[in-house]
Amino acid sequence: MTFKNLFPLMAISMVILSSCGSANKLATREATPSFPPFDQGGKTAIVAHRGFWNCSAAGFAQNSIASLREAQKHGFWGSECDIHLTSDNEVVVHHDRTIAGIDIQACKFAELAPFRLRNGESIPTLDGYLAQAEESDKTVLIIELKPHDNADREDKLVKLTLKAVKAHHLYSPDRVAFISFSKHICDVIAKECPEFTNQYLNGELSPAQLAADAINGLDYEDTVLLAAPNMIAAAHALGMSTNVWTVNKREDLEFFSGLGIGAITTNEPLLLRDLLDNKEYRK
Ligand code: MG
């Protein structure tokens, strides 16, 4: 049974008011959330932040292929990763923009060759990471496209990411979701592939403002949503998918899992699994 069969998608029509010069024009757009919707049995998906949990553990390296493999071995529904574009257009998986003082977005891919992650791996390319992701048909990969210095570079990052996702047979809203702190990147994804879950991370826009720009998901930091948990219900009322990052404390995990949120991104997926008991959503 496919993900979509289990969870019929809620398509909503949104009226978008956009300005073009002095004239306003109306357009309609479909938003089709593809994370587990909020009203499907109260189940919540566990998303392993940067691939796995417990970032201080010996031998662990966030955003490594080994960490993704480990998350898959434990049967987690989703795994999150971060990507950048090098100056010679290689997409690489890494959290920080710099490594040993070198700006990943301004250097050539070959300049990253000397560097190793804590577990001895080279910095993964997106191609290598996706090759591991497609090893399990249960993995949903949440790809965070990092902001770049200008719109052209961000356009290029989106283009190459979609190309790589297609090349690895993962071009499906059942397998991949996109998140970003760059509103421009979210806007491009909403235009290029509106059927994919597309969540803006920055936290300053209301669900209605996101929906008006055809951003179909809400994924805000735990501190933002702890201060304004009503945003989750507001997003659900608009048919949006919901996620919260990064929730690591037991009491906060309990709080969010009780709100019917679609997914929780955490460094503590095993703890969340214990708390969710039979309310964990699995593909
Ligand atoms: Mg991230």
Could you characterize the architecture of this molecule?
- The chain is α/β, with parallel strands linked by helices.
- Helices cover 30% and strands 24% of the residues.
- The chain is built from 10 helices and 14 strands.
- It has helices spanning 3-6, 65-73, 126-133, 151-167, 183-192, 207-212, 222-227, 230-237, 250-257, 269-276; strands at residues 12-20, 23-31, 44-48, 78-85, 91-93, 98-99, 102-103, 140-145, 176-180, 198-200, 217-221, 241-245, 263-266, 280-281.
- Strands 3-4-8-9-10-11-12-13 form an 8-stranded parallel β-barrel, surrounded by 6 helices. Strands 1-2 form a two-stranded antiparallel sheet. It has a two-stranded antiparallel ribbon with strand order 6-7.
- The longest helix has 17 residues, at 151-167.
- The radius of gyration is 18 Å and the shape is globular.
- 42% of the residues are buried.
- Bound molecules: magnesium ion (MG).
- The site of magnesium ion (MG) has 3 residues, from strand 4.
- Residues 80, 82, 144 line the site of magnesium ion.
